[in-house]
Amino acid sequence: MKPSKDISRLIEIMAALRAPETGCPWDIEQDFSTIAPYTIEEAYEVADAIARGDLDDLRDELGDLLLQVVYHAQMAEEAGEFAFGDVVQAITTKMIRRHPHVFGDEKARSAGMAKGMWEKIKAEEKADKRNARLARGHDSEDHGNGFLDSVPVALPALTRALKLHEKAARVGFDWSEATPILDKIEEEIGELRQALAKGDMASIKDEFGDMLFAVVNLGRHLKVDSEAALSGTNEKFRSRFHYVEQALKASGNTLERATLDEMEALWQQAKSAK
């Protein structure tokens, strides 16, 4: 088996890894649910390579992400459901259908994307998907029948909270402005304090989640994406902590030996420096 730029070689490799008698024991025992966390992880690593501007890493991480697609398709093919080619056909069909102003006839191309056309196309796709699920004997909705059930459970929690708030707001279930949400956050903090006083871990977890949920909604009203904001703060914390680490090293000290007061003083320097 030799490397190749042809996607068929990657499909062959995946099939070989999953071969019952001669494949890799670890790969053979995997299923959709056990591979899903790796798929999510690889998508994040792609985003990380982009954020760092490392195109060498991006090439490799895109390959890792592509492997995840091939992996799921291989398992689906083994189950007699669909193969990698069907995945490609599905996405090419969708892209052509959603861009009539690019791939349509001359009249469609000259007219461009008409207002409301995108929503119309997506509604048609949803109806087709519903009919296909019914034909297979499944529930008409893949996430349930509730208004908010179409928001994927597997999204990162902050992103899912934002999507839930956004969708509820479409039917008017929303605050009119940001200020009352600050009051709501203070209310949730008060309930968290009460849970802490009782020492009830179940309540502490529940109230902490309520507080985060309210904070995400505040971000939405402030036009601030919570996931992006927290990512920025994470990097800011890492950078400042690295400053502390390097400053201690320069003075012959270490993180392990330094006192909290010493680290705090350097932390304040880091804040002033950047």
Describe this structure in words.
It contains 13 helices and no strands. Helix 3 packs antiparallel against helix 4.
Topology:
Layout: H1 7-18, H2 25-28, H3 32-52, H4 55-78, H5 84-98, H6 100-103, H7 106-111, H8 117-135, H9 157-170, H10 179-198, H11 201-221, H12 226-250, H13 260-273
Major beta-sheet overview: none
Proportion of residues in β-strands: under 5%
Number of separate helices: 13
Radius of gyration, whole Å: 25 Å
Give the termini separation: 52 Å
What overall geometry do the principal axes of the alpha carbons give?
A: extended
Q: Low-confidence parts lasting 5 or more residues at pLDDT below 50?
A: none
Q: How much helix, percentage-wise, in residues? A: over 70%
* Overall pLDDT confidence: 91
Order of helices and strands: HHHHHHHHHHHHH
Structural class: mainly alpha
How many individual β-strands? 0
